[in-house]
Amino acid sequence: MKRLNIEAVEKKKEQFWFKSNWRDEQTASVKCEHNLFYDFGEGFGGNTVDFIMKYFSIGFLQAVRWLQSEDAIFSFDQPKQNVFLEVKKEKSYRVERIQLLQNKILIDYLNTRKLNIEICKRYLDEVYYTINGKKYFGVGFKNDKNQYEIRNKYAKLCLGIKWFTWINKSRKSLVILESWSDFISLLTLYPKCEKSKDFLILNSLSMLSKVDQVLNVYSELLFALDNDVAGSTATENCLKKWNSSGTRCKDIRYLFHGSKDINDYLILNTNAGV
User: Can you tell me the distance from the alpha carbon of 186 to that of 261, in angstroms, rounded to the nearest whole number?
Assistant: First the structure.
């Protein structure tokens, strides 16, 4: 962490809390302890190699080479199982209250993202929580583990286990998206699709490895993942996999061509008066 100029925001004995560099956040949600780290914002963690892979968005071999090039001694030994579980299972947050969305600050935040507030009220909650004893609040989107994706003007994190959200109305067609803001943006742009499609919100692209049982239910899969390298790679892999299984698949990112995701497209076109 020192070599990367990462300053701990908070220190508690052997715990070091810091802000992730892989997303914008105001609250430190990444903990380092016993040569392990855990990201409470996205629900994953690991050892030194795992951290370097995440920090630089590189593969295992590249991470090892980087560590070797630092002319320092690093241990690549697997951590003891009980130590890792202790770090992973430790609960440093507490949900204090959940209520209907009504806070003006949160509604103003959603308005800046050009999201239809009535649709937001159907799918989002107002969540009050503490992290390390400090009080916060944000809009909450529940996943299928009954945990919450939290967003506000300053923070982006997950309270609890990272998981996907399946909105299942037993329809034949499923739209797959990366985030709840893309989901609500889609409904804002195309409100009729709410009554004709089911939706799978991954909440993290890593959840694609866990959703086969959901995708198997549908005769048509519509992928609306982000227009970036990771999203394009994932879309290509999914189309190849599911089309070969006989399922009808489509890449529908043409709906927000030229933008990183559906919410960016919504903001741009709303501001342009389209």
Answer: 10
Q: Are 239 and 273 in contact (CB under 8 A)?
A: no
Can you tell me the distance from the alpha carbon of 12 to that of 257, in angstroms, rounded to the nearest whole number?
46
Residue type (1 letter), 250:
K
Distance CA 206, CA 230 (A): 10
Q: What phi and psi, each to the nearest 5 degrees, are found at residue 45? A: -170, -170
Structural contact between residues 221 and 242, judged by C-beta atoms closer than 8 angstroms: yes
Q: Tell how strand 125-131 and strand 198-201 pair up.
A: unpaired
152 and 176 in contact (C-beta within 8 Å)? no
Query: Which residue type sits at 85?
Result: L
CA distance 232 to 258: 13
pLDDT digits 0-9 by tens, 150-209? 998 877 888 888 899 999 999 999 999 999 999 999 999 999 999 999 999 999 888 998
Reported as a single tens digit per residue, the pLDDT across 6-39 is 878 888 777 888 888 777 777 788 888 888 888 8
In whole angstroms, give the CA distance from residue 254 to residue 242: 20
Integer Cα distance of 271 and 8 in angstroms: 38
Number of residues that this document lists for the chain: 274
Amino acid in the structure at residue 98: I
pTM given for the model: 0.69
The Cα 186–Cα 237 span in angstroms is 23
Question: What is d(CA 221, CA 239) in angstroms, rounded to the nearest whole number?
Answer: 9
Q: Give the list of residues 6+ apart from residue 33 with CB closer than 8 angstroms, or none.
A: 14, 15, 16, 87
Separation between Cα atoms, residue 103 and residue 140, nearest integer Å: 12
